[in-house]
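INPUT
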Amino acid sequence: AQSVTQLDSQVPVFEEAPVELRCNYSSSVSVYLFWYVQYPNQGLQLLLKYLSGSTLVESINGFEAEFNKSQTSFHLRKPSVHISDTAEYFCAVIAYSSASKIIFGSGTRLSIRP
Amino acid sequence: DAGVIQSPRHEVTEMGQEVTLRCKPISGHDYLFWYRQTMMRGLELLIYFNNNVPIDDSGMPEDRFSAKMPNASFSTLKIQPSEPRDSAVYFCASSPGQGAISEAFFGQGTRLTVV
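OUTPUT
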């Protein structure tokens, strides 16, 4: 079975400061990795994903995540956050053997202070 | 495409009543998922379908919950009888043929309150 751990339930940061949201996973098989974002009163949206190839993946709005197999991590980073990044961020995995069963972490609420 | 459409957006019902949540996936998507989100348990996968067939319902909490997908454009999640602990936001999501490794598109959710 797979599991996802997001150690930080809330991360407050100041605007224009860097941020890292941590994600660790556990799985006995290879997995695909995802970050989803949920803005207030909305459903989740895909932010970025790692399927194969380069271990560093980027989103269109400046976020990036790096797959680290040895540490079973997929931390999300942004060098300079904006007020509009205020949202809840979910790390997720799908096992290679289960092409569609997405397992989500508990989420990290990112709050940006002006 | 209007995206995944869920109805109603909000539902308040009394304990013991039957509740039916509805979902229209994105046209052409082969996979449909039902999730429940609560503060205590986060986002839980309840059940998912592939080509209208239930593939994994291991997340359905108990027999009071049932889900159907009579055709490619419609799915329901029913709770009968409802209980206060069922209060949550229920999300429906759909994915194209590659499944969720491509992208899961979520609806805006149904906020259910059972009093």
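end of record. Chain B touches chain A at residues 4, 31, 33, 42-43, 45, 48, 50, 55-56, 91, 93, 95, 98-101, 103-104, 106-109 (CB under 8 Å).
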